Amino acid sequence: MTLRDDIRAQVSGPGGLFELVEEEVLGERLPVFKNRQRSLREMLEISALHGDKEYVVDGERRLTYAELPRKVASVAAALRDQYGVQKGDRVAILAANCVEWPIAFWATVSLGGVVAALNGWWTRDEIEFGISHSDPKVVIGDAKRLARLEGHDPGVPLIEIESDFSALEAYSPDAGLPETPLAEDDRAVILFTSGTTGRPKGAVASHRAILGFVQGANATGLANAMVEFAERGEEFPFAAPRPQMVVLATSPMFHLSGLYAQIVLQAAGGGKLVVHRGRFEPDAVLKLMQDERVTLFTAMGAMGPRLAKHPKLLDYDLTSVTNIGFGGAPASPAAQEMMRQAFPNASANVGIGYGSSETVAVPATFGGTDYQAHPEATGRLALGHEIEIRDTEGNALPLGQEGEIFVRSAWTMLEYWRNPGATAETISPDRWLATGDIGRVEEGGLLYINSRARDMILRNAENIYPIEIEYRLDKHPDVRESAVYGVDHPEWGQAVKAVVVPESGARPSGDALTKWVGETLAAYKVPTEWEIQTEPLPRNPSGKVLKNVLMGAAENAFVEE
């Protein structure tokens, strides 16, 4: 048994802080944490123990943990009494990040209702679809997004945050939290996710799954940290006081990174969410980091490089930032190193996790020196999860071979909302989830993601994974960001096209970039078509590049997990 295996066994074995036992979950025997909370409302009640610590900072408003349950109870009472929200009913939230978002979330799930997290970037057509599909009792939205309905009546009551929400918070100041019986596998959240075509699908997460996200992240994080200490010959400081985690909440709250990793995970640990409003402007973000003494920043998509390359970066005091995370898509080694240099106090604590709206919990994650040693991996297998790599016939493949990634845990989504066909295609009767991602597992449980299956390019019968080419392009000093995809070719089947956004003032040529890629990659992988553009690449809220938009399929540009 390796040191890593031994420590993981200490953490999750009999008597461990995160002991795993096997129980029946949705008809299958699966590992679960023996000591766990059974509903999100139970987590909310316990969070009040954090007292006067701040939970959310949103401009001038500062919401403490002591205040949170009272606000939630009042809003829950108003939703029940004024809008008829009962257990199982949906409450749609359509808003940018704001303090009202988590209050509305906690109020809904405490009632036993289901939060339908509508994408804040949607157009009128998409919003109308999301409302009709989730069939909520009420929509809670901010003025900007509700205005996109252009006066159209969606057939359900609308609560405008700016003008109406304060009345809900004041509706019943002495109310207690709801007492509706809740079960672990009750529905709690619908997160909308989509591929490159078709309407969005609603991934339904249960109370069990979201709590599993939290406990799984803490368990695997503890095990990984203990390994780091042990490899340095040091004892892990279990009794050392932990300062409050201060998280810059730039990930959208309608996305798993904003909802599960920020709203829920931070409530469990007494962390503070610092809301950034409006467009992602580097100066405003850096000032917020400095003024609120942010300790954790998740560099989704182009956010990290925009801060790291900002000419006034050193004008701000960013010494409080001790943790950097990546998510939404693999981060190139160049991007990782850029963030370590920009935030030196976090250089030893850069990490990444792999998950989706469908997995709910995070099946693979790591950080620190382990991530530095394996910069192209996306994590080691997390506690309580199984991962299989399968070929096109569904056969499990051995270590090192590439195929589609399948995941199984007690925390996988329940279903796609009102879409049994898509559910059956994605989750097998024995609860294995087909992720649609292509990758491999190496010795020690290291997971490598190569590309979305649909992104693979087939040129002259050779499989080409765009991410490999993108990683190489991102290392070029004149390249800010890049995207690679396949285009039709009359002889080869597909050719490789690259879209490149250069650094300010740089003018790389296609010939120069062709030579750069060809220095390290086989000739058949080198792009034969180049597009140099000054506009940033289109991205979804998780930071993934919308290649369908680049390819001209804007009518199908629905946001993906």
Descriptive tags:
561 residues; Rossmann fold; GMP Synthetase, Chain A, domain 3; 7-stranded mixed beta sheet; 17 helices; 27 strands; 24% strand; disordered C terminus
Structure description:
- The protein is an alpha/beta fold and 561 residues long.
- Helix content is 30%, strand content 24%.
- The protein is built from 17 helices and 27 strands.
- Strands 8-7-5-6-9-10-20 form a seven-stranded mixed β-sheet, sandwiched between helices.
- Helix 9 links the parallel strand 11 and strand 12 (272-275).
The largest sheet has its strands arranged as 8-7-5-6-9-10-20
Annotation, overall tally of beta strands: 27
> Spans with pLDDT under 50 lasting ≥5 residues?
553-561
The helix content is: 25-40%
**In angstroms, what separates the terminal alpha carbons?**
37 Å
CATH superfamily caption of the largest domain: ANL, N-terminal domain
- Beta-strand content bin: 15-25%
User: What can be said about the biggest beta sheet?
Assistant: 7 strands, mixed
Class by alpha and beta content: alpha/beta
CATH architecture type of the largest domain: 3-Layer(aba) Sandwich
List the helices and strands and how they pair.
Blueprint: H1 3-12, E1 20-25, E2 28-33, H2 40-47, E3 54-58, E4 61-64, H3 68-83, E5 90-94, H4 100-110, E6 114-117, H5 124-134, E7 138-141, H6 143-146, E8 158-160, H7 161-169, E9 187-193, E10 201-206, H8 207-231, E11 246-249, H9 256-269, E12 272-275, H10 282-292, E13 296-298, H11 303-308, E14 323-326, H12 333-342, E15 350-354, E16 364-367, H13 368-373, E17 380-381, E18 386-390, E19 403-408, E20 415-416, H14 420-426, E21 433-442, E22 446-452, E23 457-459, E24 462-464, H15 466-474, E25 479-489, E26 493-502, H16 510-518, E27 529-532, H17 547-550
Parallel strand pairs: 3-12, 5-6, 5-7, 6-9, 7-8, 11-12, 13-14, 14-15, 26-27
Antiparallel strand pairs: 1-2, 3-4, 9-10, 10-20, 15-16, 16-17, 18-19, 19-21, 21-22, 23-24, 25-26
Helix pairs in contact: 1-8, 3-4, 8-9
